[in-house]
TrEMBL record:
<feature type="transmembrane region" description="Helical">
    <location>
        <begin position="148"/>
        <end position="171"/>
    </location>
</feature>
<feature type="signal peptide">
    <location>
        <begin position="1"/>
        <end position="25"/>
    </location>
</feature>
<protein>
    <submittedName>
        <fullName>LysE family translocator</fullName>
    </submittedName>
</protein>
<feature type="transmembrane region" description="Helical">
    <location>
        <begin position="71"/>
        <end position="88"/>
    </location>
</feature>
<dbReference type="Pfam" id="PF01810">
    <property type="entry name" value="LysE"/>
</dbReference>
<keyword id="KW-1003">Cell membrane</keyword>
<dbReference type="InterPro" id="IPR001123">
    <property type="entry name" value="LeuE-type"/>
</dbReference>
<feature type="transmembrane region" description="Helical">
    <location>
        <begin position="183"/>
        <end position="201"/>
    </location>
</feature>
<keyword id="KW-0732">Signal</keyword>
<dbReference type="GO" id="GO:0005886">
    <property type="term" value="C:plasma membrane"/>
</dbReference>
<dbReference type="GO" id="GO:0015171">
    <property type="term" value="F:amino acid transmembrane transporter activity"/>
</dbReference>
<keyword id="KW-1133">Transmembrane helix</keyword>
<keyword id="KW-0812">Transmembrane</keyword>
<feature type="transmembrane region" description="Helical">
    <location>
        <begin position="116"/>
        <end position="136"/>
    </location>
</feature>
<feature type="transmembrane region" description="Helical">
    <location>
        <begin position="41"/>
        <end position="64"/>
    </location>
</feature>
<keyword id="KW-0472">Membrane</keyword>
Amino acid sequence: MPLNLWLSLVALCAMGAMSPGPSLAMVLRHTLGGGRSSGVVAGVSHAFGVGIYAAATAWGLGALVAHYPEAFRVVMLLGAVYLAWLGFKALRSGSGGALEAQKASTSRSMAARDGLLVALANPKLILFFVALLSQFITPDMSVAGKWLVVLTAMVIDGAWYVLVALVLSHSRVLPWLQAHSVWINRLTGVVLLALALRVVMGA
């Protein structure tokens, strides 16, 4: 995969990981309730769940591109509609949301369980990866190329949530994020809409 294409993948995976939602709320809850180590464990565990969905999507898209190009185009467009819906939802959301998670007693084993389950219990990740990875999967892509895509998605997701746990373990950061959550949601919405437009243009 060319470096510029890989950097685009990194940027899009980062935008997806940074989107506020149940995953952020879960990492935040474990960070507040179990400390920095529990938040880090939750983030790493969530990345493994993301990797499972990313791998399933990458190999499924590869087969779809090779054998059913028209069906692949339809799947891309459906993924774009989903991204646009996420974008509009983020733009319309107010303050708080995922940043309003409450402190609760937890442990590293509970954090590991919840991190994996929150990722696997969210089938919408498949739709997100269909829209995202459709920009990078080609019929002649090698197995190593597909694994590069999957590992990139995993590492970016894990790195983001580990960073969240490290940063939010400092008490001054969370109030600032909560105070600016409206603008965080709006920025996320704009990015998702832009990604949806890119998918449509690619289709």
